[in-house]
Design goal:
By secondary structure, the chain is of the alpha/beta class. The protein starts with a strand and ends with a helix. It has helices at residues 25-38, 56-71, 83-91, 104-109; strands spanning 2-7, 12-18, 43-50, 75-79, 99-101. Helix 1 (25-38) runs parallel beside helix 2. It has one domain (2-109): STAS domain (Transcription Regulator spoIIAA, 2-Layer Sandwich). It is globular, with a radius of gyration of 12 Å.
């Protein structure tokens, strides 16, 4: 699993994730999201375009980070989850709690 972060206008941080988020990789994923918040980037786009699969602990990490963002007045949105990931989000009803966007532009616009 690889990460790449870009910081755009309005201090919106986009965390590009590549690879499956399963098992031990979830800890790394959670720490990477926490690091964004600790550096003051509480407007977070998590780009799931290149993530074919996530497990329940990855969902937990997303929910925990979402709560942290909300507590600090920020926001977390998801970008372009693949079909299998989207299905997990829908089955767990997280798709009703977390905003999901198809394009990076629309995800960034969610913060305006």
């Amino acid at each position: 699993m690889n990460f790449d972060t870009t910081i755009g206008e309005e201090n919106i941080s986009t965390l590009h994730v590549e690879g499956k988020i399963l098992g031990n990789a979830t800890d790394t994923f959670r720490k990477e999201m926490e690091m964004q918040l600790q550096t003051g980037y509480d407007k977070l786009v998590v780009d799931l375009t290149n993530v074919p699969l996530i497990d329940s602990s990855a969902l937990g990490a997303i929910v925990t980070t979402l709560k942290s963002c909300q507590e600090s007045g920020g926001k977390l949105v998801l970008l372009n989850p693949q079909k299998a990931v989207q299905e997990v989000l829908e089955v767990t009803h997280l798709a009703t709690v977390i905003e999901i966007y198809d394009t990076e532009e629309s995800a960034r616009d969610a913060f305006m």
